[in-house]
Amino acid sequence: MSKKRAAGVSAGGAAAAAAAAARDKAGVLAELEAEIERANRAAGVSAGGAGGAAAAAARDKGGVVAELEAEIERANAESQQLRRDVESQPMSVAERARLLDDIDYATRVQASKRALAEQITKMLYTKESELALWQKKSLDSCMQYNEALIQLSAQFPHLAARAVDEK
Fold first, then answer.
1. Residue 119: which domain range?
2. Beta strands in 12-61 (DSSP E)
């Protein structure tokens, strides 16, 4: 095979490898988005549940976050390896620049999605805290209402039937 054709084949192979890596990265990003969505759904369910369910959801979220961070690190290492592979391939400057631009774009997209996921996580924690505060306030109000009913039921026995179940 001639050198020119061999360079074309290896450049084509590099382009195919870059395209495959870009597809893999897109798949990883889709998996990350799915994991974030599952974590958000789990957090939404735990926000309405009891204390034990909230603790279990918090443990699950911790595991999901650890898995996501490991997946992100793997994707970053894969991206760096792909960059080194593309840079080492014998191809035209234009092809190399295009492939490197594709990799840079995919990296920026991944970074922006990670930043968005972190922002969503912070918002989720804030909403969970607000929900817990509202639950505490509503339970405190129920307690005050029941205490007032107990005091009034001595004078007005028909009010005892209006007691609120705290659960």
1. 3-127
2. none
| CB distance 102 to 115 below 8 Å | no
Q: What is the pTM of this model?
A: 0.43
Q: Whose CA is closest to 85, among 165, 7, 42, 21?
A: 21
Inside any domain, residue 162: no
Domain count, the chain: 1
The CA distance from 60 to 44, in Å, is: 13
Cβ proximity of 143 and 154 under 8 Å: no
DSSP structural state of residue 49: S
- What phi-psi label fits residue 89: left (phi over 0), alpha (psi between -120 and 50 degrees) or beta? beta
| Amino acid identity, position 29 | L
**Residue 164 placed within a domain:** no
Q: pLDDT tens, 83-118?
A: 788 778 787 888 888 888 998 999 899 999 999 999
- Residue (of 88, 90, 99) closest to 21 by Cα position: 99
User: What is the maximum alpha-carbon separation in the chain?
Assistant: 106
Whether the Cβ atoms of residue 69 and residue 117 lie closer than 8 Å to each other = no
In whole angstroms, how large is the CA radius of gyration of the chain? 28
| Rounded Cα–Cα distance for residues 150 and 160 (Å) | 7
Residue 57 has pLDDT above 50, yes or no: yes
